Amino acid sequence: MPSEKQEEAAVRVLGRWPSPYVIRVLIALNLKGVEHEMVAEPKGNKSELLLASNPVHKKIPVLIHNGRPISESLVILHTSTSAWASQAPAILPSDPHARAAERFWAQYVDDKFPTAIRVLRGRVVGDKEEAAAEVSAALWQLEGAFVECGGGKGYFGSDGVGYLDIALGSHVGWIRAVERINGVSLLDAAKVPRLAAWADRLCAHPAVVDVLPDVDRFIEFSVQNDGALAKPVDEASK
Amino acid sequence: MAEKGVKVFGMWASPMAIRLEWALRLKSVVYEYVDEDLGNKSDALLRYNPVTKKVPVLVHDGKPVVESAIIVEYIDEAWKDGYPIMPADPYERAQARFWANFADEKDLNGFVQCNAAVYPVFTATGEAQGKVVHEAQQCLKTLEKALEGKKFFGGDAVGYLDLVVGWYAYWLPIIEEVSGASVVTDEELPLMKAWFDRFLAVDVVKETLPPRDKLLALNTARREQLLTA
What we know:
The structure holds two protein chains of two kinds. Chain A is α+β, with helices and mostly antiparallel strands. Chain A has helices at 20-32, 48-53, 73-83, 96-121, 128-150, 163-169, 172-182, 193-204, 215-229, and strands at residues 11-15, 37-40, 62-65, 68-71. Chain A has nine helices and four strands; from the N terminus they run E-H-E-H-E-E-H-H-H-H-H-H-H. In chain A, helix 4 (96-121) packs parallel to helix 6 (163-169). Chain B contains eleven helices and four strands, in the order βαβαββααααααααα. Chain B has helices at residues 15-26, 43-48, 68-78, 90-104, 114-123, 126-144, 160-165, 167-179, 190-200, 203-208, 212-228; strands at residues 6-10, 32-35, 57-60, 63-66. The longest helix of chain B has 19 residues, at 126-144. The A-B interface holds A 1, 56-57, 68, 70-72, 74-76, 78-79, 82-83, 96-97, 99-101, 103-104, 107-108, 110, 114-115, 141, 234, 236-237 and B 51, 60, 63, 65-67, 70-71, 73-74, 77-78, 90-91, 93-94, 97-98, 101-102, 106-112, 142. Chain A: It catalyses: RX + glutathione = an S-substituted glutathione + a halide anion + H(+). Chain A: GO terms for molecular function: glutathione transferase activity.
């Protein structure tokens, strides 16, 4: 149950800006109108706070609320729904079937996009054509899901930006960046018209606009950081 | 097209499908079980789950839900006045979800999480087995922390996390027997071992477990197949 205390318990997010998983948390907190502080994790050494807050994975993002840490972006999204349940909007729909559908597609997003995008960034070595094809195929599936979930309105969430919008939307920065870096079209208005329009709409949304910077910044980050880290793709990561 | 009722599309030896049965029985929901031949999937299954084509699938009044952990949560929400599966407190819920992910998924960097650490025990042989067993034990030791001071992961009674990792209690000893490995021992994983016994004694679990000899035979054959491939 949401706390009745008006005292603004510190809400902190441990993270770093180009991470889609961090972006998710920031969008959710913005949507809920929750005041928060982003604590930037330094590159290289992990902070003591991070190691103490997420000892199992030692990864960002971590949400610290009322002194208690919560890790994993989708878990944090769920927590935002319940911890600030009295504040609109609801991030997940109320219908159990609709909730299950959004959860399924969010899991699908995290299954299909991260590795392919890292290949396309040049962050790990891999077949770029194959990676682009994987992203396109996944977007095509999600184009169908868009109609199912949102009922043909502007977002996956039937009432506005919701869980799945955030889960997929957080990848849009990098999707657009790798489009430019590789000269490919993924969020292609001809192939996935609804998603292409949705991406523009989402990026302009007040809760998103400040935390999903312009594609040029993603490209700049990639140029500065990804080349140096390219390494052979691990056989275990499919 | 008002198709009413609850159907589970599963496979008798699938630890993922059994999660649904446990959840439905905790809620006292009557369901029809459709046992799929995974080498020859039914048209119905492919129609209900065109994206991943996998079992299990829950069909509730004609509408499908896929992915077993997601389905368990769906069952909890759709029959919200029944047995409480998810913890009530949001922070406890976050912990339960976190540990369920730790057990089930491979993380984005290909870091092995529990299921991915346990599967290799099935086929590892010789020297490699020692290393693989150790990794599996490390994962399970981390997971075991969520049991400290409790009868079940859910507290005094079984909850979401028990249903998600419960398959270890029955399937792991079989994997150990088939492969000759020893993973969950009193010395290495005392809390986990004790929880295995408690979990297997729960009514809805006892009622649904597939026959041990059949499961043992299937896994023995599968292991031989994989090793000689």
